[in-house]
Amino acid sequence: MIGKVERYLLNQIRERGAIHITLVDPEKVTSAAASKIVSDAIKSGTAAIMIGGSTFVSTSNLDKVIKL
Question: What is the reported pTM?
Answer without folding.
Answer: 0.76
